[in-house]
From TrEMBL:
Domain (HTH arsR-type): residue spans on this chain: 1-87
Organism: Pseudonocardia alaniniphila
Bilayer-spanning residue ranges: none
SUPFAM superfamilies xref list: Winged helix' DNA-binding domain
Name of the protein in its database record: Metalloregulator ArsR/SmtB family transcription factor
Pfam families named in the record: HTH_5
Stored PANTHER family: TRANSCRIPTIONAL REGULATOR, ARSR FAMILY, TRANSCRIPTIONAL REPRESSOR SDPR
NCBIfam families, per database record: HTH_metalloreg
Keywords of this entry: DNA-binding, Transcription, Transcription regulation
UniProt xrefs under Gene3D superfamilies: Winged helix-like DNA-binding domain superfamily/Winged helix DNA-binding domain
Top-level division of the source organism's lineage: Bacteria
Cited InterPro entries: ArsR-like_HTH, HTH_ArsR_DNA-bd_dom, HTH_MetalResp_TranReg, WH-like_DNA-bd_sf, WH_DNA-bd_sf
Length: 105
């Protein structure tokens, strides 16, 4: 899991995962969205693939990259015992916002 956290620490890699969350994409499409060169995007994809966060599927000359959520499930399981810390705060925020909002007629 340390590798996953290390990989996720880089903002561009998180952005790639955000883009892949919607659907599989080609390197060129990711490069255009990120404003990076194809070699730069490919380097990030290689790191993500080595960490198991991304899978690649060859289709003729094209390479489709897609999210593999398995390592993220490990992170989610690790975070589970800490959720109470923000769940209580979110509940308090909701109560505060409800108290401050005008009553509906």
């Amino acid at each position: 899991m340390d590798v996953t956290f290390e990989v996720l620490a880089e903002p561009t890699r998180r952005r790639i995962l955000d883009l892949l969350r919607d659907r599989p994409r080609l390197v060129g499409e990711l490069s255009a969205e990120l404003g990076l060169s194809q070699p730069g995007t490919s380097k990030h994809l290689r790191v993500l693939r080595d960490a198991g966060l991304v899978k690649v599927r060859a289709e003729a000359q094209r390479r489709w990259y897609e999210l593999d959520p398995a390592p993220l499930a490990e992170v989610d399981a690790w975070l589970a015992p800490y959720r109470w810390m923000w769940a209580d705060r979110l509940d308090a925020l909701e109560r505060h916002l409800d108290a401050d909002s005008p009553e509906e007629s």
